[in-house]
Specification:
There is one protein chain. This protein is of the alpha/beta class and 678 residues long. Helix content is 39%, strand content 18%. It has a 7-stranded parallel β-sheet with strand order 11-12-10-13-14-9-15, with helices on both faces. The chain has a 6-stranded parallel β-sheet with strand order 16-21-20-17-19-18, with helices on both faces. Helix 6 packs across helix 7 and helix 9 runs parallel beside helix 10. The longest helix is centred in the first third of the chain and has 29 residues. It is globular. The structure holds adenosine-5'-diphosphate and magnesium ion. The site of magnesium ion has 4 residues, from loops.
Amino acid sequence: MNNQKECPSIRSLKGVGEQRAKYYEKLGVEDLCSLLRYYPRAWLDFSDPVPILQAQPGEMVCVKGTVYRKQGEQRIRKGLSLFKVYVTDGEGQLVITIFNNIYAFQALELEHTYCFYGKITGGLLRREMNSPQVLDPDRESAIRPVYPLTQGLTNKMICTNMRQALKEWGDHLEDVLPQWVLQTYGLCRMRYAYENIHFPADRHALELSRRRLIFEEFFLLSLGMGQIRSRRREHTAFCLKDTDLSPFLQNLPFSLTQGQSQAIADCIQDCTGSTAMNRLIQGDVGCGKTVVAAAICYLMAKNGGQSAMMAPTELLARQHLETLTKMLRPLGISCGLLVGSQPGAQRRDTLKQIAAGEIQVVVGTQALIQQGVEFARLGLVITDEQHRFGVEQRSLLSQKGEHPHCLVMSATPIPRTLALMMYGELDLSVIRQMPKGRKPVKTWLIDSGKRLRALGFVRKFLDQGFQGYIVCPMIEETDSELVSLTRYQQGLQGTPLEGASIGFLHGKMKGAEKERIMEQFARGEIQLLVSTTVVEVGVDVPNAVVMIVENAERFGLSQLHQLRGRVGRGSEQSHCILISDHDQPATRARLKLLCQTNDGFELAQQDLKLRGPGDFFGRRQHGLPQLKMADFATDLAQLEQARQAAQTLLKQDPALSQPEHRLLREEVERMFAAQTSN
Ligand code: ADP
Ligand code: MG
């Protein structure tokens, strides 16, 4: 906000001694500036009281009434005394009880009118309210801030200190936002925002202030991310010269979709420049991201560089290897695998070939980032299903080369604006359409009473030569509610699935065992794969057309969508049956949504609303500074505007080095410094 050094300590406020300053310190408040930034977590609105006669028992309400009788202390027992205050609004009456607080009792004057906020108890004939929040409308504004508290600090203390801080420091506040930003986006000034976020004159003023502070946070965040982005533009040794893709394209069994072509074109453009590519390819499950990666691997090999592709599971790594081998080996490019479960001798051999540059495209798991893995000429690094990897792991892989180009592939279809924030240092290509001929998966929600019928439905497909999945939440039956994998392993006699060839797959199995089963499934020797969520990411068997998900309520929307993406990969109409006995309306609404739409972007947006970005990405992995006022899920429109404004500003002053941007630069630094210190 303002020059930190000049901002007076919190101790300069009346009533703040050593002890209280310590309490404030716990909240991260050390001076008047940080106090002013300590925003309420909610506001109690006394501006719209209901008539007492309309207040229903059990409700939290605000009523307004005049004190007509006071009844002094009654000692109930040791340590418990109460006071009664009788209030009327002309028509209804309310009995207010105050416990153990003679000051609160004395503060209420006879014949004076107050607002009371609390829960109505008693009955319709005698309404009561215990220890309400009281507001004196003659002396206070009708909207009261509610601060997050810590032991030793009351809301009242913070209010008092805040008032004084505003009075004493308000005039020294210099607006962080440039004048043109305020004007272009219709934002109120900082002084006004601080006054009205803490002590709103009315609801409108509160809304204006909130809007301004949300914008400000997003603006600072965008500036910071923008700067990180430009800092990471590293020079690279692997500037692609030969960009002729035609042999690669001729070898493909299909032609590319427009989105795929565009993504490849974006990558080529990046890789022919002198700085390293940093690109995120985002596209719904099944849109065909792998071929984009393969195309760039092809060019990299043609230009003498190696590529490394890291997948989150061995299963996926093996599958990628197979796909890439099919696309690249006929063109004379060698591909290899590096995963944890490889036997020592084989591993040493592979490592040698990688170090010698004999393997041009290496696919693997996190085994790729271990010590001892050395590349001859690593020019391209690809990570698949990005949300499983932290930024950290991505950069470890990059460090195996000298500023290699980076490509990240993600099926999590987060809204564009958010993606630009999350992966601030990455450029973004989005693949929106699916390859031709795909039919959207039909999805149903049923309860377990219909399980047998669902199994019969699956059996019919198996008998026609198709394959299917059953997904269960976990391996062991620890929770009687859960239909576990074990239960499937034990009891299919007498069900429609009896006699079908079934493979079981779960996370605790050894890599080789998983691989064997997956291979059998891919070759069609196994008809039905019963598994935990290990099939979630990326597994591709187009002949699988039907899926059952047990205890569907256990999974998030996006996760279910990913799971469902395992079917619907061929031209046959596919089906997904969600089984859940949960009848919570929110859960049902979530699952129904899945039945209504196949659009991963829409589902992601909903998921974001329901669960917030923290859960959505795994809290640590989203890696953004904590925001105080703004919310990624609900304030997306603001985020977009703030991002635009930040871009405009950065174009003109990329390092924020101009004198009039000093304050901004300091604020951005502060925001990001706070993040790294947590
Ligand atoms: P994802 O984006 O989920 O990683 P994949 O790369 O696994 O998708 O591709 C899914 C399936 O679609 C694969 O079987 C792949 O061969 C096929 N595919 C990809 N692109 C096309 C295309 N342009 N036309 C037809 N099929 C395609
Ligand atoms: Mg994939």
